[in-house]
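Morning, I've got a small favour to ask if you have a moment. The fold is given in discrete form, as structure tokens running alongside the sequence. I'd be grateful if you could look everything over and explain what you see. No rush at all, and the record is pasted right below.
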Amino acid sequence: MGGVPALTTTSRTLSCVLVANRGEIARRVFRTARAMGLRTVAVYSDADASAPFVREADVAVRLPGSTPAETYLRADLVVAAAERAGADCVHPGYGFLSENADFARAVEAAGLVFVGPDPGAIEAMGSKLAAKELMDRSGVPILPSVDATGLSGDALAEAADTVGFPLLVKASFGGGGRGMRAVHDPADLVEAVQGAAREAVSAFGDGTVFLERLLERPRHVEVQVFGDRHGTTVALFERECSIQRRHQKVVEEAPSPAVGPELRDRLQEAAVAAARAIDYVGAGTVEFLLDENGDFFFLEMNTRLQVEHPVTEAVTGLDLVRLQFDVAAGRRLPSEARSPTLRGSAIEVRLYAEDPARAWLPQSGRLADFAIAADAEFRTPSGPGIRLDSGVVAGDEVGVHYDPMLAKVIAWAPERSSAALALAGALSRARLHGLVTNRDLLVRVLRFPAFLAGETDTAFLDRHGLGTLAAPLVDEAGLRRHAVVAALAGAALRRSAAPVLAGLPSGWRNNPTGPQTTVFDVGTVHYRLDRTGLTADVDGEPVQLSLLATEVRPVGPGEAGRSCRLDVEADGLRSSYEVRVDGDRCYVDGPEGASTLVEQPRFPDPAAAVQPGSLTAAMPGAVTRVAVAENERVSAGQLVLVLEAMKMEHPVLAPGDGVVQALHVAVGQQVETGAVLAVVSDTETEGNHDAS
């Protein structure tokens, strides 16, 4: 290694591709494959049997089971599926087996084309430890690091001292923020190493971890590289991915607001040198940490297509998946890739089913509605606009086995602030019902003055605080309006089903009478609609609204419940609200933002109550660790147990000082949402607590 890819003058025709992945990346690859005339093959787990990517493939092959280890990580099953379906190439997407050298070898051994780099290149960069050593020999700056696998006691402490605090514990074969822990206090080191190793084994099948010096506020900047088998290796500019949660990217953009022409040249030269050091062929990304002085340090090389590749497509006009197929078929990179042009600015956000205000708690369940206005899907718009790469549609079930990302939403504009504000607008107007998402946080980040000024780094969310950035877009006054509107919509929907006078205004009374009452989880609505108009309050707080019109509307395919549009006026300002009622849930979309209200039963079921002090599961998952025993005294914030869901560990902490009165679970046990995990009670500590 160390030169350029060997010359290849022959090419072959690819006719059928199996995508060894799921969700939005499978749909993305299918779009380009269809445009190139290739047949498409999907593999799917039992949990994904009804997923959009399965329906969109020409052929789909079942992988029995639901967990990644049973399905998408089974190289033997995936290769067998490709052979059975008549595929002549395999595209790995990202995650799962995409950076598994043995999988690439198995694909090639079956006589199929692997749409990615050679197995040797994957292996060279597969271990972050080995990759750092290679980059060090190649003259690329690196951060101090030490292999911590199997170390304990004094040996582990000595390794940490060599690296220095603060430090990161990282999975050597990991990615996507999994198997990673930041450690500032030496007392937390042992638990961080053990937790990272457990998570790495679960997600990647390898528990090798290492310690690396932690830069407190760097920018995360990466360079897209591409190589062919004709001696060409190019860099397609940089992306910045500094805004992260749990070391996983949330907002990505190209180009970086911190990178000028001189720094861009240095970054691209280093990235191309890294790629050539391993004879790289195909799409890859070389990641760096950039400090405030303009110095950068090699982080890792991802030997695959990145989640955030759409922003590079937007600013270059290139279809990176098409380039992957071309290179895999033995063709040269086209002139537009060899001499790329940078135009405008693109920003991507990852829309997750998670609750940022509750420690990023993943969500699972039915997506009652999912509608984001976009100018294009899985391709770059012809001009300024919005692109949507989604793995779900309205009515889908979001399970617990996989990453909770619902979609990537991308905006392109001639300049950065226009792209940011257009993206924020598209997100704020989206209809996302049924699950809590990070939508409001994304909108606030995109509109935040520091972000618009380009003042971003990996500590952005911590520095500006989730109390500000994760706050709902709908404030308290707006939530009261939403509650009144939801109560009126509920009455209108009930009225529309009446056998007589169905068109009568909702809640209307001919004679003076007591107010109508609707109780939501956010408060009690009292309203009266008569000849003098609408009077309403929420928990005694007046809400000034005039009801102008009510329209009961049909719902679309896959959407749940019944829908109603209300036109109202307040302080001379007219606005419209869309309300969908699905069981006891009322989803309200208005000019302030969106909210979900839960109508409370008139007569609560006493059997639904749980014992005071109960810690309940906030999501389905598996218990991977129990850290306490019954009758043990615990202090506030102490670890009680660990749940694993969506490939991440979620610690369950004691909400206050108390005694463990009961433990209802054991290691390896599967639990459902709402299950009582443990009871921690004290005369001074009572109440029920979600394990989040």
In short: The first strand starts at residue 16 and ends at 19. The chain has four domains: 144-213, 219-469, 476-598, 606-691.
